[in-house]
Amino acid sequence: MPECRTCGGALTEVYDFGRQPLSDAFLEPDKLEGEFFYRLAVGMCGACTMVQLMEEVPRDKMFHEDYPYYSSGSEVMRKHFEHTARDFLDTELTGPDPFIVEIGSNDGVMLKAIADAGVKHLGVDPSGAVTERARSKGIRTRTAFFEESEALAVVAAEGNADVIFAANTICHIPYLDSIFRGVAALLKPNGIFVFEDPYLGDIVERASFDQIYDEHFYLFTARAVRNMARRFGLELVDVEHFGVHGGEVRYTIARQGAREPKPAVEELLAEEDARGLAQLSTLEEFGLRVTAIKDDLVTLLTKLRDEGKRVVAYGATAKSATVANLCGLGPDLVEFVCDITPQKQNRVTPGSHIPVRGPEAFRDPYPDYALLFAWNHADEILAKEQEFRRNGGKWILYVPDVHTV
Ligand code: TYD
After folding, report:
1. Residues above pLDDT 90, as percent of the chain
2. 20 to 30 A from 97, CA-CA: which of 7, 39, 236, 374?
3. What is the pLDDT of residues 14-32, one digit of tens each?
4. Per the database entry, which stretches of residues form a coiled coil (predicted)?
5. Closest residue (by CA) to atom 22 of ligand 1?
6. What is the DSSP letter of 168?
C-alpha cells in the first residue's frame, strides 16, 4: 500500500492522469529527444486526509536556472501581493526589528513593497533566473531550496523571523516535514507562518483538474493543514479564502498556545466536513467529471478542426500540461499557444509540442476560437482582449465544464 508523504498513513489512489511531462519544461523545437515523463496520479491519505500525488518528481528537474514562471506576469497578482505586503507592514512588521522571509519568492513580486519600505526581508527560491530578476530590483534573495538546513543557515546569518510567507509554493514541496521543522526553527516565539495555495474545495467544486500537475504535489484543505501543523508543535490560527488562481486559501500558522485560533478556522473545518472533502467518494465523483470534461473537450476540438475553424490557446500555463496531455492535444487541434513570457516563446509545450508564440500572434489575424488555458486569469484576459470577441471570436473554457463564451 502506498504511504502518505506527510504522515505515513495509507494512501488510496483516486485518479490517474497518465503519462505526463514536466509542466514548465518548454522545449526548443529541435530538441525534443529524451523528454522526461512520469505518471501523474492523485490520492488521499486515510489517516490525515492529505490529498497528494502518488509519484514525486525530483525537485531539481522542476526548479532550476531556467525555470520560466515569473510571478509578476499578471496585473491582478501584482496587486494581490502588493496588498499582502502592505498588510504585513501594517500588522506584523511594526516591532523594533521586523524581519520577513518569503519561501519561493520568485521575481520578488511580494517582497518589492517590503524592500521599498526599508524593512528587513529575505527571499529564498531555488530558481536561478527568477531570483536574479528579484535581486536586480533590490530584493535580498538567496538562491536555494528552503528546507530545515537552509532555515538554520538563515537563523544563524540573519536571526529569527516575525513572518514567513509563501504563495503557491508550499503545495509544491513533497518534504513538508523538513519545511515545518525549518519554519519552527526560524519563527520568533510569536511569529506567524502564512501560506496560500490552490484549495481542494475549489478544485472539487469547479472540477479544475488542471490544478493537478507535477509542481502541485499537495491539494490542501484546512483539515489536512491543521493535522500537519500539529505534528510540529504548530497550530492553524486563521484561514482566508479568496479568488486568485482559481480559488485559494491563505493559512496562518503560529506556535501552539501563542495565538488564539480565529472562528474562521472552525467554520471552514465544518464546511469541509459538510462537503465531504475528506471522503474518497467525493474525489471519485470529481474523477468522473474530469473524464467527462476530457471527452467533451476532445469532441469539440475535433469538430472545430473538421469544420476548418482556427483554434489557438491562450496562456502557456503549467496547468495546461495536464489538460493537453490528458486529452492528447497537439498542433493538429490547437495551432499555437500565445503567452507573454519571453522564456516560453518560440518553444513548444511540454509533451503536447504545441508551438508557443508571443501575444501579437493572437491578433495576426484573430482565430475563430481561443482555448483559455489561463482560465484563472479570465477576468484580466477577457477585459484586455475584447477586440477578439468583437471580431466574432469565441473563448473555449473547460472548467467547470466545456463551454464557449
Ligand atoms: P498561471 O496560471 O499564473 O500559472 P501556472 O503556470 O502555474 O498554471 O500562468 C499564467 C500564464 O499565462 C503565464 O505563462 C503568463 C500567461 N499570461 C498571458 O500570456 N497573458 C496574460 O494576460 C496573463 C494574465 C497571463
Report:
1. 100
2. 236
3. 999 999 999 999 999 999 9
4. none
5. 381
6. S
- C-alpha 95 – ligand 1 centre gap (Å): 37
Distance from CA of residue 175 to its chain's centroid?
Answer: 17
Residue 45, classed as helix, strand or coil, is strand
Whether residue 252 contacts residue 291, with contact meaning beta carbons closer than 8 Å, is answered with: no
What's the mean pLDDT when you consider all of the chain?
A: 98
| Nearest atom (ligand 1) to Cα of 320 | 8
Q: Which of the 8 DSSP states describes residue 299?
A: H
Residue 204 has pLDDT above 90, yes or no: yes
Nearest-CA neighbor of 170 among 6, 9, 47, 386?
A: 6
Ligand 1 midpoint to CA 316 (Å): 6
Q: Whose C-alpha lies nearest to ligand 1, atom 10?
A: 317
Sketch the domain layout of the chain as residue ranges.
71-278, 282-404
In this prediction the ipTM stands at: 0.99
Q: Does domain 71-278 have CATH number 3.40.190.10?
A: no
Write out residues with Cβ below 6 Å of ligand 1: 69, 73-74, 315-319, 339-341, 374, 376-377, 380-381
Taking only the tens place, the pLDDT of each residue in 100-132 is 999 999 999 999 999 999 999 999 999 999 999
Do 71-278 and 282-404 fold alike per CATH? yes
Per cent of the chain over pLDDT 70 is: 100
CATH class, domain 282-404, is alpha beta
Expressed in angstroms and rounded, the spacing between residue 227 Cα and the centre of ligand 1 is: 32
Determine the atom of ligand 1 nearest the C-alpha atom of 68. Answer: 14
